[in-house]
Design goal:
Helix content is 28%, strand content 28%. With 293 residues, the chain is α+β, with helices and mostly antiparallel strands. 25% of the residues are buried. About 9% of the residues have low confidence. This is VanW family protein.
Amino acid sequence: MRIIVVLLIFLFLLFLLFPHTSYATVMEFYDEQEDSWLIDLKPYIFEVDEVLLNWNNIQNLTKYMQKQVYKEPENAYIDKDGKIIKEKPGFTLDVNQFHTLINEVYYGEVNKRLQVPKQSIPARVNKDLLKEIQERELNRFTTRFREGNVERTRNIELATEAINNTVIFPGEYFSFNEIVGERTQARGYLPAPVIVKGEFSEGIGGGICQVSSTLFNAVDLQGIEITERYAHSREVPYVPKGRDATVSWWGPDFAFRNKYNEPLLIRATAKGGAMTVVIYTSNDASIFQAKSP
């Protein structure tokens, strides 16, 4: 008898922790042409009293729909041909409107289905901004590499692609590790020579320090504050002595801050054995001047 009681209590707790509503049924009402969802509210009422909605289930449904509806906005960018590709807005669930509609539809005693409301998320960088901040070239720097070293070249290309088209707004910080991300084989990075404690060894992502060093030499100018930079433990051949910037995941980073009153744009390319970084901003850009006390 005790075993049966314990089992019943266990099943009751499971019911409370994991509502029986099946969210898989939600997708049956997805309209691909309209990119919208229709929700059947019948599973979200109290079984003992169909006059009331089960708001525990509604909250779980809300979290589920937030994941389904969310779409990250896409910034405008400059393609390989120099053409500006227009931004695309993102979407998120309009939670307040969602709950309002649930009440209106259910208590209005109409068909218990509703179209899920979405809010638009504007892209951070739009076409007009991108056009404006490529008006004025602040600086550029080029380094060379051997294309025949396939693994190292691939790593340089991936890291270069990651920093290309990055926009740093006034007062913002740029972190190389944050922008480029972890260098793993799953993300396409290959084993290549790296410097560890003054000695050459093999490591995933070898070669990306050439990208960070090229970037450092391009942004090391008035109006950009270098906030984090570390030198290699031995000289590297692709930049002058003392002009390198080593980076590693879970280790040294290269970072700087934009002190202009306008955004900065990083354009980076790696082809034909040359890695180039160009820094742009708008014609109206000026450096923030500290106010005198």
